[in-house]
From TrEMBL:
InterPro entries: DNA_primase_core_N_sf, DNA_primase_DnaG, DNA_primase_Znf_CHC2, DnaG_bac, DNAG_N, DnaG_primase, TOPRIM_DnaG_bac, TOPRIM_dom. Signal peptide: none annotated. Its EC number is 2.7.7.101. This is DNA primase.
C-alpha cells in the first residue's frame, strides 16, 4: 500500500518520537531537555557507555553521532522490531487513533485475495491439529514424544497431522465452502496435468505451519511418518502468500528476543529451530531449506548485527554454509556480518541439547567462526601451493572472492586480513621446502596438511619474551592490530607514528604498515619472501596457537591469537566493539606515554647540562603533559576494568 506524505506526517505529529524510541532506551536525564524536545540516550543500535543517540522532536528525527544511524518513527520500528514499512505505519496509525486510508480498488482486491488465502491456510491448520489430537495421529504423537517436545511447544507451533488418504483435507475444507481452486492456489492440493482429480499434497506427514511476519499461517512443512518415505521433509510450493526466498521460519516469534539479546541464530530446519526455542534460545529462525537470498540476509541483520549460522558439521552442513558465504559476501557492510557455528559431525541441535542441555548448545554457539575465517578455511584447506602457478591460483581465487564485496571499506579490511594469511601460508610452504630450520624448526604448512596428518607443534619457533620495557603491552598491541584490522585501518596515522622498545615489535609493525601502504597493490606471491623473516615470528605465534585450540573443536572468532586472549581473557567473552576499541586505544596511549617518558628523560639530561629558561619551560610542559596523560590512561583502565566485570556478570546471568 502506498501512503500519502500528508498521512505519514499526520502520524508523526500525533505520535511522540520520544515515546516510540523510549520503548528501547533510557533517557539520560543530565543531557536531555524534554521541554525543548531534546533527548539523549545510549544508542540502541550499537554498544556504548556515553550517550550519543539524539532525538529531536521538533524535526521528528533521531541520529546517533557514534554509529551514524538516523531516521524517523517508521524507520525506528523497522530497524528495532524488524517490521516492514506498511506494518510500521499500521502500528503507529493504530497508536495515533488514525484510520488507514482506503486502498485503491486494485490493491484492495489483491489484499482481499491474500487474506482469503491465509484464511484457507488457517482452516488447514485447525484441521491438521484436530487430526493430530485424534487416534489417527497416533504415529505423529509418538514421534514428537520421542523428540522430547512438550505440550506447550506443540500448542505454540500448532503441530498437526495430515492423514494418509488421498483427499482427506480436500473433502474437509471443501465441505466448509473452500473452493478447489483456492486449495490448489495455496499449495494444499496438487492438480495433475492429465485431467485426473486433484489430491492432497501432504499425506501421512507431521505438519508444522509456516507463518508470515504477522503470525498468519501461509504455508506448511511436513515430515513424513513413513520410515522409507521421500522426501523426508516437504514444504509448500511458492504461492501468492508464500515466497521461500524472502521468508524465515519462526521469524515472527524470534524477532524481538533476537534483537533484545543482540544475537540471532539461523539453523537448517524448522525442527532445529523448534528444539532451540523450547530450551529458551528464542531468537532462532530456520532458512526453509533454501540457499540464503539477499532478502533473507537483510532481514536477519534487522535481528542482530552478526547472526550465527548454526549448521551440522557434516559435509552437507559445511556445503550449505559455503553456499551461504557466497551470497553474503557481496552485501556485507561495515558493522554487519555473520558467524558460523558447525556442530560436531553427525549431530543436530537436538542431539547437542539431549547430550549436554542448553549449556552445551550455548557452548557450540560461542565457538562460532567469523565469516572471514570460514572464507579462509574454505579456500586454503584443500589448496595445493607447491608451485608458483598454484600459489598464484589460490591468490587469484581469494582476490576474486574479496572483489565481490561491494562495500569498499569492508573489502579493504578483508583484503588485508587474507593477504596476511596468504603471506604466512606461502612463507611456511617455502620454509618447509628448504628443510628444517635452526633449532629443529621444520616450518609450517599446517593449513595444507592432509586429512589425518598430525601437526608438529614443536616445529614452530616460539618467540621468547625478552626483558624489555612494556613488552606485554607491545605484544598485545601488535596482535590486536592483526585481530582487528578495521581498527588498524581507522587509526593508521597514529599507529604509524608509534615506537617500540622491542626490536622485533618495531620491525613487525613497520612491516605491517608497509604491507598496508606501498606493498598493498603487489601480488602476495611476489611479496611474502621479501619481508624480514622475523615478521612471521609474531604472525606464526598467533596463527599456530589457533591450530592447537581447534584440534578437538572449531575455533571461534576470539580463540584466534591465543597469546593475546590468554593475556586478555575478556576478549574471549565477545565484548562490544566500543569496548575493544577503547582497549585498543588504551594500549596506544600507554605506548605514547612511554615515548613521552623517554622524551622527558632526554629533556632532563639537557636541562642538567645546560639549564636555561627555554629548557626549563620544555621540561615543565612535558612533565605536566605526561602527568595529565597518565591520569587519563589510569582513568580509562579503571573504566575498562569496571565494564569487564559487568560484562562477565551479565554473561553469567544469561547462561545461568
Amino acid at each position: 500500500m502506498r501512503f500519502d506524505q500528508l498521512f505519514l506526517e499526520d502520524i508523526r505529529n500525533r505520535v511522540s518520537l520520544s515515546d516510540v524510541v523510549g520503548r528501547r532506551v533510557t533517557w539520560d536525564r543530565r543531557k536531555s531537555q524534554p521541554g525543548k524536545g531534546d533527548y539523549w540516550a545510549c544508542c540502541p543500535f550499537h554498544s556504548e557507555k556515553s550517550p550519543s543517540f539524539h532525538v529531536d522532536e521538533r524535526r521528528n528525527r533521531y541520529k546517533c553521532f557514534g554509529c551514524g544511524e538516523s531516521g524517523d518513527h517508521f524507520k525506528f520500528l523497522m530497524e528495532t522490531e524488524g517490521l516492514s514499512f506498511p506494518e510500521a505505519v499500521e502500528e503507529l496509525a493504530s497508536s495515533a487513533g488514525i484510520a488507514l486510508p482506503a486502498p485503491d480498488p486494485q490493491a484492495a482486491r489483491k489484499a482481499a485475495k491474500r487474506n482469503s488465502l491465509t484464511d484457507v491456510c488457517e482452516m488447514a491448520v485447525r484441521y491438521f491439529q484436530h487430526v493430530f489430537q485424534s487416534s489417527a495421529g497416533r504415529s505423529a504423537q509418538e514421534y514428537v514424544q520421542r523428540r522430547g517436545l512438550r505440550a506447550e511447544t506443540l500448542n505454540e507451533f500448532q503441530f498437526g497431522f495430515a492423514p494418509a488418504g488421498r483427499d482427506n483435507l480436500k473433502k474437509a475444507l471443501m465441505a466448509k465452502d473452500v473452493s478447489e481452486a483456492e486449495l490448489i492456489e495455496v499449495g494444499l492440493l496438487i492438480k495433475p496435468e492429465d485431467g485426473r482429480p486433484s489430491y492432497d499434497r501432504f499425506r501421512n506427514r507431521l505438519m508444522i505451519p509456516i507463518h508470515d511476519d504477522r503470525g498468519r499461517a501461509v504455508a506448511f512443512g511436513g515430515r513424513t511418518m513413513d520410515p522409507d518415505g521421500q522426501p523426508k521433509y516437504l514444504n509448500s510450493p511458492e504461492t501468492p502468500v508464500f515466497h521461500k526466498g524472502t521468508m524465515l521460519f519462526n521469524a515472527h516469534r524470534a524477532r524481538k528476543p533476537a534483537f533484545d539479546a543482540g544475537q540471532a541464530i539461523v539453523v537448517e530446519g524448522y525442527m532445529d529451530a523448534i528444539a532451540l526455542w523450547q530450551v529458551g534460545i528464542k531468537g532462532t529462525v530456520a532458512s526453509l531449506g533454501t540457499a540464503f537470498t539477499e532478502d533473507q540476509i537483510m532481514r536477519l541483520w534487522k535481528f542482530s548485527d552478526e547472526p550465527v549460522v548454526c549448521f551440522d558439521g557434516d559435509v552437507a552442513g559445511i556445503s550449505a554454509a559455503h553456499r551461504a558465504v557466497d551470497r553474503i559476501l557481496p552485501v556485507l557492510t561495515s558493522g554487519k556480518s555473520f558467524q558460523f557455528a558447525f556442530l560436531p559431525d553427525g549431530q543436530d541441535p537436538d542431539d547437542v541439547i539431549n547430550a549436554g542441555g542448553v549449556t552445551a548448545m550455548y557452548g557450540e554457539i560461542e565457538k562460532a567462526l567469523p565469516l572471514s575465517e570460514v572464507v579462509w578455511q574454505r579456500e586454503s584447506s584443500q589448496a595445493r601451493i607447491d608451485t608458483p602457478e598454484r600459489k598464484a591460483a589460490l591468490e587469484k581465487a581469494v582476490e576474486d572472492l574479496v572483489g565481490t564485496i561491494k562495500d569498499e571499506r569492508v573489502q579493504k579490511r578483508y583484503r588485508m586480513d587474507l593477504r596476511l594469511k596468504l603471506s604466512n601460508l606461502f612463507y611456511e610452504e617455502s620454509r618447509r621446502n628448504r628443510g628444517p630450520a635452526k633449532g629443529g624448526s621444520s616450518g609450517g604448512g599446517w593449513r595444507n596438511k592432509k586429512p589425518g596428518e598430525e601437526v608438529d607443534r614443536a616445529s614452530f619457533a616460539r618467540v621468547e619474551a625478552p626483558d624489555t620495557p612494556a613488552y606485554g603491552v607491545e605484544r598485545s598491541f601488535c596482535t590486536m592490530c592483526l585481530m582487528y584490522p578495521e581498527m588498524f585501518d581507522r587509526h593508521f596515522e597514529r599507529i604509524s607514528q608509534l615506537t617500540y622498545s622491542n626490536e622485533l615489535h618495531s620491525m613487525f609493525m613497520s612491516a605491517l604498515v608497509r604491507i598496508t601502504t606501498d606493498l598493498a597493490e603487489g601480488a602476495v606471491t611476489q611479496i611474502y619472501n621479501k619481508l624480514d623473516e622475523r615478521f612471521y615470528q609474531i604472525l606464526q605465534e598467533a596463527i599456530v596457537s589457533s591450530v592447537e585450540q581447534s584440534e578437538d573443536s572449531k575455533a571461534s572468532t576470539l580463540r584466534r591469537w591465543d597469546a593475546l586472549t590468554n593475556r586478555l581473557q575478556i576478549l574471549k567473552d565477545d565484548p562490544p566493539e566500543d569496548f575493544v576499541e577503547m582497549l585498543f586505544l588504551n594500549y596506544a596511549d600507554m605506548l605514547e606515554l612511554r615515548m613521552l617518558e623517554l622524551e622527558l628523560e632526554h629533556e632532563t639530561r639537557a636541562m642538567e647540562e645546560n639549564l636555561t629558561e627555554e629548557t626549563w619551560s620544555r621540561f615543565q610542559a612535558l612533565k605536566q603533559d605526561l602527568a595529565r596523560r597518565q591520569e587519563e590512561c589510569l582513568r580509562d583502565e579503571q573504566e575498562l576494568a569496571e565494564r569487564a566485570i559487568k560484562m562477565r556478570a551479565s554473561k553469567s546471568s544469561r547462561h545461568a
